[in-house]
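Long-time lurker. I teach an intro course on protein structure, and each term I like to show students one example going from raw sequence to a predicted 3D structure in token notation. This year I'd like something fresh instead of my usual example. Would anyone be willing to generate the tokens for the chain below so I can use it in lecture? Attribution to the forum is fine with me.
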Amino acid sequence: MIGDFLFLDDDLCLFCKEEEKEKYFLCESCLNKLDFVDNEFEILGHRARVLYFYNPFMASLIGDYKFNRNTSLYKVFGQMVFSYIKEKSMDNFDYILTTPSSKSVLKNRGFDHVRLICDYFINKTNMEYLENFKKIKNTKAQHQLSREDRAKNLKNSFTFEGDLTGKNILIFDDIITSSNTVKEIIRTIENANPKKIEILALASSHRVKK
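-- Reply from a regular --
Happy to contribute to a lecture. Here you go:
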């Protein structure tokens, strides 16, 4: 798989690379730093689920994956998400839609970090990738903008050509903060008449009560 580090001890944690891995390819020390919240809330009337709180450790994990190109961590996130999907019996979706990045981001980063996570487990489910959904606008990085500017930045960023009548769609993202990206995706695919839309994210910076 892209960029997997060579010569790593197979028994060592994929993040700290110091202790033996226990679960999700992480060691006990790293696992204890995770904050599993299993939150449920709504985005534009659709159910959203989040696995972990975006605490400093999760920020380090995701940052190492996305910006330091430690792509071996796709296994960590992929196993987390797959285990959650199986636990929650979320196998009744026809398609999974990974939040797309702009061409400039993909060129700079060298890989599609969200889709790579799903590559780990999609063949073990009944889901397929939703194709023909594209990002058509090169937007600024969301974390650099104010809350108000984030919504403007994403307006009319996506396009989808197809008919989703009777289909169940699972939108997957790594982090939900303002949820503006997900909202714009929902508005785009709602025009294709899907039966059900749900959202799943690895982490969120907000603690939302069920």
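Some talking points for your students: The mean pLDDT is 88. Residues 163 and 191 are 9 Å apart (CA to CA).
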